[in-house]
Amino acid sequence: MKKYIIIALSLFFLGTLNAQTLYDGADLSNKGLSGTARFVGMGGAMGALGGDISTIGSNPAGIGIYRSNDVMTSVSFSTHEIETKYDGNKFSNTRNRAHFDNFGIVFSNNMGRYNTLRFVNFAFNYNRAKTFYRTREMSGLMGGSQIDQMITQANDAHDKGYDLVEFGDDGYNLFDVNGIGWLSAIGYEGFLFDPVDGGFGAHWTGKPQGHFYSKESGGINQYDFNLSFNLIDRVYLGLSIGAYDVDYKKYSFYGENLYHADTSTSDENYDLHSNKWIDGAGFDFKFGLIVRPFEESPFRFGVAVHTPTFYKLTLGAESMLSSNIYLVNNQNQEVLENKRVFTSEGLGRMEKDYRLRTPWKFNLSLGHTIGSQLALGAEYEYQDNSSINFKHPSGGGPMDHETNVASEFLKGVHTLRLGAEYNIIPQFAFRVGYNYSTTGFEKNAFKELATNAIETDTDYANEEALNRFTLGFGYRGKSLYGDLGYQFNHYKEKFYTFDHKDLQSASTTNSKSQVVVTVGLRF
Fold first, then answer.
1. CA-based nearest residue to 447, from 407, 413, 412, 405
2. Hey, which bits of 147-265 come out as E strands?
3. What is the pLDDT of residues 164-186, one digit of tens each?
4. DSSP state of 207
5. Domains along the sequence of the chain with CATH
6. Is 53 helix (H, G, I), strand (E, B) or coil?
7. DSSP string of 258-284?
8. What SS3 class is residue 402?
């Protein structure tokens, strides 16, 4: 006889349960190339050149280059394709999205050409700093099972004094016990593993057939407020205060067809549906300097330092598991029906507050113009992702486990940006750019769920180096201007549906194309 169980999990409990992982921290720390079409077209390599509102977020001193007022806005259309290969199967998923990318305004104040302080400028810019819209799918014969990860979490809880059998039999709701992770709780309630002497073990053998699907959405909005100075047209100083708004959502599905050792059947299966969301806000400070060292030369260099972004975030989670599992009486080998059903009817949603501190960021840039026709820019940027820090809400102290795991499996990211702008005629410009970023993940990085984590989505992807190619065109009138920018991003990942020593990674290729249009007015 078959047994069917549905576990609907949707809890609210504020305690010491943990949720976030190094992959959440890396996602919120790394941003893409975004801004005006001119900035995108030059690959973002404008830190020392300045004169574009988007430098407010890279080198704030770039706003000090302005000698007139400016107002502009940008929209974009992007296509993100993920191709996944695993076990001889290939899956391709594409997401198209239109965005309102940018709105900025600069107020330039002339202090007099004979003063040491020539200009004092104020600026504000809204920028869509990052988007999370992506869809992934794969299936194939797994080298292990997700149930093994459930068992590992259950045994970890058992070793720390939290026994799923004890708490379950005593009438506790396992999902309300701070020391028990939700992945193990939902697996145990779904009869995916059994109690054994000294812990828990599987009641099945063989390699399951796995199926995975995920869909992510949302983004990070950035709001920068700037004050900058022009000293004798050779030294430029800038400060930007940034505010950030985070909205991230993820739905994931993972299911397995199991092979039972005692009945030799293959029609047992389970499906795990997971929802996760992250909301919150943060702030940072960015300091910039641009110097033109030689009076007779337009060459200049720039230096910028970004403090960590200090986020206050809320992570929410809810899950549902449906299982179709045989239970066997070991004495007479008869398949028994167990009518035990777990539900969470009447309970609310689970949300966990925490704080995240992203890495410091350091930027060095060079800029040079040749006559009025050619502008060249180059930038190097570094941020050490291993310094990501997690904390409980105010007064809750450090989250040492999550911070230590991030320190072990993340590393510094090096980014090189190159860009050029050529004025074919005074009114019309052509632009080109290139970016290269190293991976921020160690080769052995994996998604480790804490013993008491509330997350049940076990998938993760280790990004490799990123290449970005850009093009752009621009028209400048006496006051009005318009720009068109294009970028193409390409990088590969090693993707895993869960953590298991025998599981082979899926090979994924990410390709993103984006077209940006900017219109503006200088006055």
1. 405
2. 194-196, 199-201, 209-231, 235-258
3. 888 877 667 777 788 888 899 88
4. P
5. 17-142+199-312+353-522 (2.40.160.60)
6. helix
7. E--TTT----EEEEEEEEEEEEEEEEE
8. helix
Using DSSP's 3-state secondary structure scheme, residue 181 falls into coil
Strand partners, 252: 214, 274
* Residue 430 burial (10 A CB sphere; 0-12, 13-18, 19+): middle
100-122 pLDDT, tens per residue?
A: 999 999 999 999 988 999 999 99
What is the C-alpha to C-alpha distance for residues 101 and 127, in angstroms, rounded to an integer?
6
Could you tell me if 126 and 222 are in contact, meaning their C-beta atoms sit under 8 angstroms apart?
yes
456 touches 424 (CB < 8 A): no
Residues 6+ apart with CB under 8 A from 173: 344, 347
> Under the phi-then-psi rule, with left for phi > 0, alpha for psi from -120 to 50, and beta for the rest, what region is 333?
left
Q: Element (H or E) spanning 335, and its range?
A: strand 335-336
For residue 522, give the 3-state DSSP assignment: strand
A 10 A CB-CB count for 394 gives 9
pTM: 0.90
Give the separation between CA 435 and CA 431, rounded to whole angstroms. 14
Answer for the pair 75, 98: CB distance below 8 angstroms, yes or no. Answer: yes
CA distances from 129 to 2, 214, 376, 519 (A): 50, 22, 24, 19
